[in-house]
Amino acid sequence: MNELIKITEEFVKNQLKGDSSGHDWHHIDRVRKNAQLIWRKEQQGDWFIIEMAALLHDIPDDKLNESEAAGWEKLDSFLQSIELDRDTASKIKSCISTVSFKGGRQLELNSIEAEIVQDADRLDALGAIGIARTFAFGGKKGHLIYEPNFSIRGEMTLEEYRNGNSSSVHHFYEKLLRLKDRMNTAHAKQLAEERHRFMEVFLEQFYSEWNGTA
User: Fold this and answer.
1) Which CDD domains match (predicted)?
2) pLDDT tens for residues 100-140?
């Protein structure tokens, strides 16, 4: 198992090297560390499935591939190359398929492993790291830092979420500030509280400086 983890680490590092949108190897490694924190507290789930899903969760992401189909083909090809049994590969892919926020969709998770990986990924979208990643991704996509005339969008289709008018600050309201109440596990909910409050304090300071009242 350790050898498979090492092979997977190298594959992911190679695939995501040079990424400047907040989805680089360091993001992946933080998600794995978050998952381990949660798993140790919850004392449930198969750690190998969790670790592999955490490492591979961004490989099929449509943001990082020509298409979602191309991303899943890449993931399938890798899993076949390391000769995982079909059941294990299926469990890993099932976790990965439910990780992404994608405009606020809420999918029913069918395993504790999926809950832990989703929570771990969402924790990395909160707090100081979440703030840094938001502006990195916004800059990469050509989004404005803030545009007061934009409206905060509610539930969206994937197309609207990916390509509609928004700003990096609006992203806090359209995604980040909604994550705290969507955590699955008890420990992730505790961790999310502090990170959520940090973002609220940041936004208070941001508006104060934006409006010239700081």
Assistant:
1) HDc
2) 766 445 667 889 999 999 999 999 999 999 999 999 999 99
